[in-house]
Amino acid sequence: MVATQIAPPKVSQTQNLINGKWVDAEGGKTFDTFNPATGEVIAKVAEGQKSDVDKAVAAARKAFEGPWSKFSARDRGKCLFKLADLIEQNAEELAGLEVLNNGKPISEVLAADVPLVTSTFRYFAGWADKITGETIPVDKMLGNFFCYTKHEPVGVCGQIIPWNFPMLMVSWKWGPALTCGNTVILKPAEQTPLTALRLGELALEAGFPEGVINIVNGLGEGAGDALVCHKDVDKIAFTGHYETAQVIMRKAADSLKRISFELGGKSPNVVFADADMEQAVNGAMTGIFFNQGEVCCAGSRIFVEQKAHDEFVSKFKAKAEARKLGDPFDPTTEQGAQVSREQFDKVMKYIDIGKNEDKANCVTGGERFGDKGYFVKPTIFTGVNNGMRIAQEEIFGPVVTVLPFENMNDVIKQSNETIYGLAAAVWTQDITKAHRLADSIRAGTVWVNCFNTFDAAAPFGGYKFSGQGRECGKASLEHYSEVKTVWVNLGER
User: How far is residue 431's CA from residue 448's CA, in Å, rounded to a whole number?
Assistant: First the structure.
């Protein structure tokens, strides 16, 4: 889609969705949701607590055992296809809500977020009637048996999503869960609930029965905690920070819930001297400054071969300084606002840490842009060693470190010196180097001469502290289905 000038849309929904009805939080509590570009309040949103989660879980269980279980796989797919069509028909409104509540540029939302959301729902819609079992040729010495497997849904799934890609994270969670026949309770990030709520309205219009999709807004210590601890929730899927995942894992242990996590990263972006330097610089720009750097797989550690270091930094700095920041609704804006005051303060704190670390040099950026909203200039540090905090800790903002390396063994070692393992990239015209690096870096995704390339069919997830399990692709269906083995005694032959 080509970005056009659109006005901020009206907010149509701020309540919780429980059992097919839009309702206020049982306790009557609300919280403010903000426009990051101005710092102003957009609306008050229902703040769900344990009692709201209890009602949503009961509705999800009733739907799972009732009307949803009677839908054929093909009919589940039809609902997902219809939802994708409705999203496409309401693309500008949804894009506007995402910009208003998240602060990202309208050009990015229309070019990336909305198309990825629709393609994700269509991808999983296509899977609905193709999730099949196997016939197993068991040992005839056991007797005359027919053995086969079948896939069944896990049940009621709690899904907790982050604020950096609100719509896309809904599609990544709902898509595989619903196509497998599960019911869901979604807790959107409290910073960005508006597009999830609008998608809930469209889901009802698409024909999902009441109780199949529930949305409970709220804070982590309220709605999120209640969802994780609920004994009638069969699975928790969470995207966010690893420290929150550790808490979820401990609490989920009491009921032995199935869990899957997509967590953070500190992705190495490796540039060899033989790379197309213009292409590598453009890739580095996408790798760190796309979505204001609020990307779990952001290429926040750029390793450049020593003999190309100065050339790369010079070109990278010039492009960063030419990047247009400002009104996210302006189609010419390239970088919007950080999502919240809290995130803005965190990024600025890390910039100060970088400026005060020994020998680190802030070559551009390092300060606020404008006098309202939460804008941070693209920031590049050189003179950094791999052990510094700005090279090891996830900043989740438009801040990048450029580190030199001497040879292949050196860059492999430095790339893997992190608790994370979500993604990596390599820029080179030597296919041998590319494959060796792809084999050697412990990360769930490795891009070669590209960055931030996604498709609903390609699994995405991480090693180490970057998560457990995979989003997207056939691999994601494994987290939302149980495999049942059936033995049938056919009697004497």
Answer: 9
